[in-house]
Give the backbone structure.
Amino acid sequence: MFGNSSLWSRRSVIKTGGTAGLAAAAGLPAGAITRPKPPAHGDARATIEQRVESTPIVDTHEHLIEEEVRLKGGSRRIRANDWSCLLSHYLDSDLTTCGMPRKTLDAFLGPETEPSQKWPLLEPYWPRVRHTGYGQAVEIAMRRLYGIDRLSGETAGRVQQGYEHRLKPGFYKTVLQDMGRIESCQVNSLESPFSESRQPLLLMQDISFLGMHIGPDIDSYAGKAGIAVSDLQDWHRVIDWWFQTYGPYAVAVKSQAAYSRNIDYEDVPAEQVQAIFKSRLNHDPLANADRKRLEDHLFWYCVRRATEHELPVKIHTGYYAGAGTMPLSRVAQNAAAASDLCRVAPNARFVFMHIDYPYYEPMIALAKHYANCYVDMCWAWLMSPVASVNFLKQYLVTAPANKVLTFGGDYIPVEPVLGHVVLARKGIARALTGLVDEGWLDLESALSLADPIMRGNARALFNLDLKTRKLQAAPWL
Ligand SMILES: [Zn+2]
């Protein structure tokens, strides 16, 4: 500021002269500049809601199974092909932690109980969970898809009718695009490392590199690649095959290794893990330190391949799905380890998923500090809708707006994605409105953020124009 006399004098004028001072500073007669009237609260809120409502969203994380598999009820991921399937993921976790006995939950979710017999099993527990994000997403989905306002003993039968009615070819497009205004999804298949989708533009895919570095899962990866693995170099060739074969069609690579370890990966050279890999092939027990060194080496091998193929690296951080298994002392270390990844590999682009809930403030600091740190709100609106609003408000006035991704449904069944995206749009609108109300952003700025954070950032980061062209000519179609 020192030495900039023109800035100083202009500030003085503005400070002392109000709009007359502004006009004088611009060389205009007094009265030539009038302050725009701030919109009334209701106006701003309605305008923002309308903008968020009409903006298409890129869904950056799902576990959806292929529609034709779902229609046949042919996936072990969907236990019963009836209305309970909407509550199977993730609401089963809240049902467990609210006190529903395992046997009751199994009977509720399983195929051996008639759909008409399922409500009495759920009834005592439903009031305990219907207000969580998991519960709200399910109830919203039932409202939008089946026209049922409240799940109850009277309505459960109609929910089942609605469920059956919706389940027909094309229902993924109906649910996701027509009703959810989701432009495209990014699927992390739980069935195979890369799923050759029959709807590749709707269900774009990540390459899962989890089993490339954890385990490693030699059978799942080497079999498809047709490469016999007898040493570490062979395993490197298997990894290379997946990147060469599917890299052009994948949008990213993804790992949820944080369910079994911290994401503190050291760059261990190949020669230090050759013997450990041999032991793994021989099914010899590995010491924990050796296992970690092998995983660490393979993680960086994969990150380098991903970076060569211009694929962002998606990494699970924070909260665990399920119930009764989360070591929070280790989860709390994710953000610190994430900062090391960003620093060590400035050319890799890391997408830290789930806002590292509940440790989202350190993630905002990382996105602010590291050019290669992106934060993804996938799953977050479900875990904690209000924390997600707080996260987004804080993020937008702290870190660059191009590095936040605001939605990923993170579901196996498609129906509750609709409930989740409704929650997300509500939360995004709340966050932007809050920032306007509190005077941190003007309305125009808030409106201008909607498209990038809901759509544009993901399109740029994952190079979706190019991927669309590649996928239109995918060899498996
Ligand atoms: Zn997920």
Notes: Residues 82-166 form one domain. Confidence is low (pLDDT under 50) at residues 1-32. The longest strand covers residues 57-62.
